[in-house]
Amino acid sequence: MFPAAALLSFSLVAVVYGQAAGTLTTETHPKLTWQKCAAGGSCTTQSASVVLDSNWRWLHSTSGSTNCYTGNTWDSTLCPDAATCTKNCALDGGDYSGTYGITTSGNALTMKFVTNGPYSTNIGSRVYLMATSDSAYEMFKLKQMEFTFDVDVSNLPCGLNGALYFSQMEADGGKAKYPTNKAGAKYGTGYCDAQCPHDIKFINGEANMVDWKPSDNDKNAGSGKYGTCCNEMDVWEANSMGSAYTPHSCKAQGPTRCSGTDCGDDASGERHSGICDKDGCDFNSYRQGDQTFYGKGMTVDSTKKMTVVTQFLTNDNTTSGTLSEIRRVYVQNGKVIANSKTNIPGMKAYDSITTQFCAEQKVAFGDVDDFAAKGGFGPMSQAMTSGMVLVMSIWDDHAANMLWLDSSYPLDKDSSTPGVARGACPTDSGKPTDVETNSPNASVTYSNIKFGPIGSTYK
């Protein structure tokens, strides 16, 4: 992911118990099926569910209904310091459809952008795929495997991102490692990604309220002293106007709390000094020189549902090898569509992400090669060996208006400069105030998830 999504606090009437389970609102995970495939294409349906990220949940006193966090500030009485705040505050179960606009049906998950609930207005959301148990995330070991899903982004305009990706989170959400985390994966705890987000309210089972600064352009978000970093594989970041897939490697393995330079914060000018590659090595067809491949009415038609296939190939074609290539295939209207090819001066005609592709892209675009500096495929390969959590989300961008995905970015460079044009959206599009007002009913639907050996999940 690029900049983190806006997160809301809620003024609901319920009692909850910090990073422990609440008692008034029962946490019931929406059911979602997916398929595990074997070589040859035989697939078995898995009965699973999704869980809402803890950052979206109502947080308030364990002994009453006073909010611990309102708008973008912490309550000074309940939260005079991090340790006391952690002891005093709690998470509750969620009304997935009524509060968050999250619904499931069979193998399909639909996430609505803006939901006007009885007590709050919710913007965006993030969920994780659970294992058969409702207290652990499903862990995907991706090497020499392929991951396939259907997606409908026809209702996602400029400025929105329907993102499906893998994060190197812990299976139990950090519950065993951090005793103050009583809720664990059942309540969506333990998030991390390569942007090392500072807006996560609890990191390592402790309130992230030290040096908390309310956002100056988002009334519902802020940032604390600490960030939470880990390897992140962006399989799909897209709206109806642009799409990309991107590996982001980190020097550290597993969820890592950062502070100072290690976080690589843009505000301090240290983006490339942190432990994670925030830029990543992206394959965006538009940015790679084919402006007719993905979009409305194009080769891959974003006005219609599509199947997205991603293959994680190793150097010796075994699950014990080292990640060496990430390939993409689409299926739409019964037709298999090969990925577009790079058409950029100074680059070969690549159609997948490899070490050579990344190196040539960074030179051609004049970008810092932080992908190589952070170890390239090496750390990501290790993360895929240990297992990664599937994340699905919908969000808008208070940091850069999503221009890095669907428009020309950065704004101080001419759009004709190689690598700047990433999509056809206007450079004045994507402002959260505009998107939230004009497209509240935007949504994304993910469905028909399949996972198995190379060649087993599609025809």
From TrEMBL:
Keywords: Carbohydrate metabolism, Cellulose degradation, Glycosidase, Hydrolase, Polysaccharide degradation, Signal. InterPro entries: ConA-like_dom_sf (IPR013320), Glyco_hydro_7 (IPR001722), Glyco_hydro_7_sf (IPR037019). It catalyses: Hydrolysis of (1->4)-beta-D-glucosidic linkages in cellulose and cellotetraose, releasing cellobiose from the non-reducing ends of the chains. Residues 416-442 are annotated as: Disordered. GO terms for biological process: cellulose catabolic process. Belongs to the glycosyl hydrolase 7 (cellulase C) family. This is Glucanase.
